[in-house]
Every structure is written in C-alpha cells, then in structure tokens.
Design goal:
By secondary structure, the chain is α/β, with parallel strands linked by helices. The chain contains 5 helices and 9 strands; from the N terminus they run βααβααββαβββββ. The protein has helices at residues 26-37, 39-42, 61-74, 80-90, 116-125; strands at residues 21-22, 48-51, 93-94, 104-107, 132-135, 139-140, 146-152, 156-165, 168-179. Strands 2, 4, 5, 6, 7, 8 and 9 form a 7-stranded mixed beta sheet that branches. A two-stranded parallel ribbon has the order 1-3. A hairpin with a 3-residue loop joins β7 (146-152) and β8 (156-165). It is globular, with a radius of gyration of 20 Å.
Length: 180
C-alpha cells in the first residue's frame, strides 16, 4: 500500500531583481536643468551628481506627511496613485549622461545592492567625487506644471515644489531645508 502525503515540497521562489532603467523623458531633464540654473540652487552647484533619482525622503514618516499635505495643496487634485507610481518608478530610474548640463554622473546602482556591506562600499566609493549633489526624480502633478524635487549635497538638503509660470520653472515653496 502506498501512502500519499498532502505535504508538497515547495520550491524556493526566485525574487526578480529590479533592472536599472534610464530616464528618457525630456520633461524630467527640463526640470532638473531648470533647478540647477536657479539662484537658490546654483550657488551650491557641483561638478558631480550621484546617478540615483530615488532619494530616501519618502522612507521617513515625517517627510511623507509633509509631502502629501503639500501635494494636496499644490497639485490640482490629489492623485495618490499617480504620485505613488512615480515614487516607485524613481527607485529604479537613473539619469542619462549628457542630459544634465554641466554635470558628470557618478554611477550609484542600487539595483545590485543586496547587503549593507555592499551599500557601505558603494558609499565609500563615491567619496572621491566630492563635492557632489543629488537630485530626486521629479514628482509631477497630472498637468505636469507643478513638481516636487529634493536637492542636496553632503551638507544640506532642500525639498521644494516648483511651478511653471510663464514658461519658466519657479520655486513656490521650500518646505524643508536641512543643514548638516
């Protein structure tokens, strides 16, 4: 007599690693280049930029609260799904060399990081490029005339909303400025 067991041996599931995706949207680069030309920002301009559009602002609850409250105020309508999708896209998005004026990109590929040791090693490797900046993926409203950006370097971070007014991007509010 043969006994059948209901206990199936489960095969380990493979987790698919995200692929590095380069940003091709010219509108994103229009916003990034406009940020770099603003007097409020240009005084801090550096030669290098970390090539990672995902800034961890959204991982901190206090930042999330401020961000979503201001999104409701400055975007025409609160489209949380679109905002969420843009934040998720930023996690695997990387800028293309030559699309950001006057900036050399430092490769900062988070898609290959699986341990804290690798992350520490990556952070150590970029130290030779100081001073450098970071700029987040622009989070747009539906009309793409208002945008959220985070900009920073080793000593400060600015988080702000901009609006396109008469064909020119202008800061409408800097809601967080951290000096380290």
């Amino acid at each position: 007599m043969k006994i059948l067991s209901c206990n199936k041996k489960e095969e380990p599931k493979t987790v698919q690693k995200p692929e590095k995706e380069y940003i091709t949207d010219p509108f994103v680069y229009e916003v990034i280049n406009a940020v770099l030309e603003m007097p409020e920002i240009s005084e801090y301009k550096a030669e290098y930029m970390i090539n990672c559009s995902y800034i961890l602002d959204f991982a901190i609850n206090e930042d999330k609260k401020d961000f979503y409250q201001l999104t409701e105020k400055y975007f025409e309508e609160n489209d949380t799904l679109s905002v969420y999708n843009q934040i998720e896209k930023s996690k695997i998005s990387y800028y293309k060399e030559g699309f950001i004026k006057g900036i050399k990109l430092i490769d900062y590929d988070l898609t290959k990081i699986t341990t804290s040791k690798q992350f520490d090693s990556l952070n150590k490797s970029i130290r030779k490029y100081r001073p450098y900046i970071t700029i987040s993926y622009p989070i747009f409203n539906k009309s793409r005339n208002v945008v959220h950006i985070s900009y920073g370097d080793d000593s400060f971070t600015k988080r702000f909303f901009m609006k396109k007014i008469n064909g020119k991007w202008e800061i409408i509010i800097i809601y967080s400025e951290i000096i380290i």
